[in-house]
Amino acid sequence: MKFATKVIHAGIEPDVSSGAIMTPIFQTSTYVQDAPGVHKGFEYARTQNPTRNVLQNQLAALENGDYGICFASGLAATDAIMKMFKSGDEVISCNDLYGGTYRIFNRVFGKFGLKFSFVDMSEMKNIEAAITSNTKLIWIETPTNPMLNLVDIVEVVALAKKQGVLVCVDNTFASPYLQTPLDLGADIVIHSATKYLGGHSDVIHGAVVVKDKNLADELYFLQNASGAVPGPQDCFLILRGIKTLHLRMDRACENAAKIAAFLEGHDRVEKVNFPGLKSHPQHELAKRQMKNFGGMVSFSLKEDSIEAANKVLSNTKLFALAESLGGVESLIGHPATMTHASIPLEERRKTGVLDSLIRLSIGIEDADDLIEDLNIALNA
What is the CATH number of domain 246-378? Predict the structure, then answer.
């Protein structure tokens, strides 16, 4: 089954009780049993919910995995993955990553004895040097947030397998439409489903997909035991959003390519980060690893100051100044003071998150209107 068919049909059947074509929202906290232990597969809604089950099955199909596990947010999904490990275990992460992930690693799980190394994953030697006998997981974002760097999943997997280390890929920026890390050998895929999977800026949600049953069983246990589950309404909204994922992503990718080219030629712009540009140092890897180059663009100004960035951020009309990404509307943000404010200044600057860095989530509007909006703001 090809992707455009999967988003409509994979894991989804008309409701058996009514024939409803849309998966019903099973808004219940518990289920009646015929006798103690005799039920229809559902006992309590934290543990199982029919709406959630359908979504979990569809997410597994989209990522070419076998098991989908849904959570109340992307960070709740991250929390569950980290709870698979114990004090003294070590995790290697890319050094350019979402600020919320950095925060939960260092400030939450660091207190419980997990150790984290943040390395530049553009070269395998950096990862290899960080591996110790206690390393249990390599955590990848690709493309990264917000610098749009790529990590070669195949190379990381090959290195990890030699050492008996798991590989987790945060696939939020690419979505399963552009990239399927499990096919490249990764063990775990995680999403902030709030973003491209939901696609309409109206729900918070997280998801994990795996192929291995043992991993799945542990994650299902943690989903139930810790209880950070999404409600059925949230699952319904993600199911609805997924139906147009391929259409939205195609348009976002097309718009992002045009906007990146415009920014690269603007005299106020110092550098543009977009894997689709030939000037991107990992452009060839992007062509191999992804179906298209995504809808995210970041750029820095020649005048590197928060004041210069604020002039741009405050003068757009179509680009809304807001956190998050992946919706149908275009958003503009300032990583240093918004999404990545929890990362210390010296660490941010090492990865290129300068004061003038601006991140764009490109929506599905007309590209010419978006370019005009940015041009006015840049010339403000």
Answer: 3.90.1150.10
pLDDT at 343 over 80: no
Can 98 be counted among the known catalytic residues? yes
Residue of 195, 211, 248, 359 with catalytic role: 195
Q: What is the mean pLDDT of residues 134-159?
A: 97
3-class DSSP state of 206 = strand
Residue 342 pLDDT > 80:
no
Q: What pTM was computed for the model?
A: 0.96
pLDDT score, position 229: 98
* Catalytic residue status for 170: yes
Distance CA 49, CA 261 (A): 46
The active-site residue out of 6, 79, 96, 98 is 98
List the chain domain ranges: 3-242, 246-378
Q: Which of 31, 46, 136, 243 is catalytic?
A: 46
Looking at the domain covering 3-242, what would its CATH class be? alpha beta
State the residue for tokens 């795996």.
210
Statement: residue 221 has pLDDT above 80: yes
Q: Do domains 3-242 and 246-378 have the same CATH topology?
A: no
Catalytic residue among 79, 96, 152, 170: 170
Task: Decide the pairing of beta strands 135-141 and 166-170.
Answer: parallel
